[in-house]
Design brief:
The complex is a heterodimer of chains A (about 220) and B (about 110). Chain A has about 220 residues and is an alpha/beta fold. Chain A has 8 helices and 10 strands. In chain B, β4, α4 and β5 form a beta-alpha-beta unit. The chains are: A alpha/beta (about 220), B alpha/beta (about 110).
């Protein structure tokens, strides 16, 4: 999963916008944003953050700077060092696919902030907060917390490729209060874009996505 | 055995929900995945967990659990305390890990047929 390969496959598969969401880190966001710029693919900076309850959520930002500020908070509450022999090398790459270094933090770990605190922090920084793969039996809002908490303020619920919107609406109580999106959660290049979500928007940025999620100003989630 | 007796015997502290201390504890259950606890815990169980999120109160009410014991020195979130107080669900605290506390509960007869 090198920056240039991600951009190439994204373009091949007809994506207009992708987001880089490493686990608890945004250190590769800038490289993919710059690689995308060279080839004409819009890229959001992001992270998939694991909360104290081990609930995964996506944090999506327009700029690398915002993502890095979120990352500062995440790193402050993330303990432990990586063991590459167990969890693999955590490469930090540049836009030319060169290895710039290795991230030594235990990125597989859980940030010692509650899910609610993470959602609030992402919003404070102007980002989108989306609960990840809520239909899955591990690391999801539903698996960790039993059901969708009443007072949760995420911008959308993401479902995995293992279910459909219709099925999710039938099986997950409370999901109907939120817009539903579906992303690839790609861990390998071949997974990119499958599935994806189609938005009707004027431009490729967080504010437009938020409008589409809320169905404001003619924007919407098409499918 | 009543929850209040267990609190005294094992020197637990009660964070909130004191009005429920009169309940009978029949057995125990250990789990940190709320989806699992919702599916498998039994009525009247003491639930040992490290989860401190407010949803634990709803799970305890739904499954008619006797009390929730936060282990490993974990403290309930503020919203959790408020909800537990409202529902009368005792939230008890223990510095012990779940394994050790479960052993002690078993020793005093909780969950032994």
């Amino acid at each position: 999963m090198s920056p240039r390969a991600i951009v190439e496959i994204g373009l091949e598969r007809g994506m207009d916008l992708i987001a880089v969401c490493d686990h608890n880190s945004a250190e590769n966001s800038g490289a993919v944003i710059r690689a995308g710029k060279r080839k004409g693919l819009a890229v959001l900076a992001g992270m998939e953050i694991s909360s104290r309850e081990e609930v995964h959520s996506l944090a999506l930002f327009d700029t690398e700077d915002q993502a890095v500020r979120m990352q500062d908070l995440v790193y402050r509450y993330l303990r432990g060092s990586n063991r590459p022999e167990l969890f693999g090398d955590q490469v930090v790459a540049n836009e030319l696919d060169e290895v710039e270094g290795f991230n030594d933090r235990l990125l597989i770990g859980a940030v010692q902030l509650s899910f609610h605190e993470i959602v609030r922090a992402v919003h404070r920084l102007g980002g989108l907060s989306i609960a990840s793969h809520v239909d899955r039996p591990s690391f999801s809002l539903v698996s960790q917390l039993g059901f969708i908490p009443e007072d949760i303020d995420v911008d959308a619920m993401e479902i995995s490729r293992h279910t459909t919107r219709e099925k999710a609406r039938m099986e997950i109580r409370g999901i109907e209060r939120f817009p539903i999106v579906s992303f690839s959660d790609a861990h390998f290049p071949g997974d990119i874009g499958n599935p994806c979500t189609c938005f009707l928007m004027e431009a490729l940025n967080v504010a437009e996505i938020l409008q589409a999620l809320k169905e404001e100003g003619g924007r919407k989630v098409i499918q | 055995m009543k929850v209040i007796e267990i609190v005294k015997l094992l020197r637990l502290s009660a964070a909130t929900g004191e009005e429920g201390l009169d309940r009978e504890a029949e057995t125990g259950y250990c789990g940190d995945l709320l989806s699992d606890v919702m599916a498998n815990s039994k009525k009247g169980a003491l639930w040992l967990t490290i989860q401190s999120h407010q949803n634990i109160v709803a799970v305890a009410v739904l499954r008619e659990l006797a009390a929730v014991i936060l282990v490993n020195g974990r403290m309930p979130d503020e919203e959790t305390k408020i909800k537990a107080q409202g529902e009368g669900v005792p939230i008890l605290l223990s510095p012990l890990p779940a394994y050790e506390l479960a052993g002690k509960l078993y020793e005093i007869g909780i969950g032994r047929a």
